[in-house]
Amino acid sequence: MIYLELFIGFLKVGLFSFGGGYAAIPVIRDVINHYGWMNEDMLTYMIAVSESTPGPIMVNLATYAGSTQAGIIGAAVATFAVVLPAFIMIVVAVAIMEKFIDNDYVQAVLQGLIPCIAATIAATGIYSIINLCIVKNQKYMPDYKMMILTIILGTIYFGSRKFVKKGLSPIGLIALSAVVGAIFL
Fold first, then answer.
1. Coil, strand or helix at 180
2. Which of 9, 7, 35, 5 is nearest to 24 (CA)?
3. What is the pTM for the complete model shown?
4. Contact 92, 112 (CB under 8 A)
5. Engineered SS bond to 10: which of 3, 31, 78, 176, CB 3.0-4.6 Å?
6. Tens digit of pLDDT for each residue in 46-69?
7. Is 177:153 a contact under the CB 8 Å cutoff?
């Protein structure tokens, strides 16, 4: 039964996640909460581990969730389910791309997805910040250490854009966050 739940749950994630892993986090959160596979703190840690390990975050999240629920087979089922829709869509898209890529309606749909994806990623970031800094176990409990670290890292990230043309790279920010977190937490 758990294998079927993992397959259906992560098939939904694969089907309804546009814009990559960060845009998929709200969908993954809904699926995990629906099935009761883990609590919010564990999910937050799972997201942190998944984004700091090599590979696509959505695949890492599916693999990790599947392994915590049903071992290696569960990890394989969840991973297969989350990549299956994208695989099928890519095969179909490549087969028909030459005919429709210049179509105005197709371009309009693709352009319309851009702000939706950006808003989903921004909402996920804001939700994570609120969850880490203010709300613990659905209770209002400010975590001042996390607030200070978030402000420091945000200041470094956005401040670096003034000194370095492109700003701090995501890899640099992840490494800096790991060092700062290890020192202060």
1. helix
2. 9
3. 0.58
4. no
5. 78
6. 888 887 788 788 888 899 999 999
7. yes
- Give tens-digit pLDDT for 1-59: 899 999 999 999 988 887 666 778 888 889 998 999 988 888 888 888 887 788 788 88
SS3 140: strand
> Could you tell me the two tokens for 176?
């800096």
Cβ proximity of 7 and 77 under 8 Å: yes
Position 77 confidence tier, pLDDT thresholds 50, 70, 90: very high
Q: Which amino acid is at 152?
A: I
Tokens of 46: 């799972």
Q: Which long-range contacts (CB under 8 A, 24 or more apart) does 152-158 make?
A: 152/180, 153/177, 153/180
Query: The dihedral of CA 68, 70, 71, 74: what is its sign?
Result: negative
What span, in angstroms and rounded, lies between the C-alpha atoms of 24 and 27? 5
Residue pair 135/141 in contact by the 8 Å Cβ criterion: yes
Buried b / exposed e across 118-143, counting CB within 10 Å, b at 16+? eebbeebeeebeebbbeeeeeeeeee
Mention every residue, 6+ apart, whose C-beta is less than 8 A from residue 29: 43
H runs (alpha helix) in the chain: 2-16, 21-35, 40-52, 57-100, 104-133, 144-163, 170-184
Separation CA 125–CA 128 (nearest Å): 5
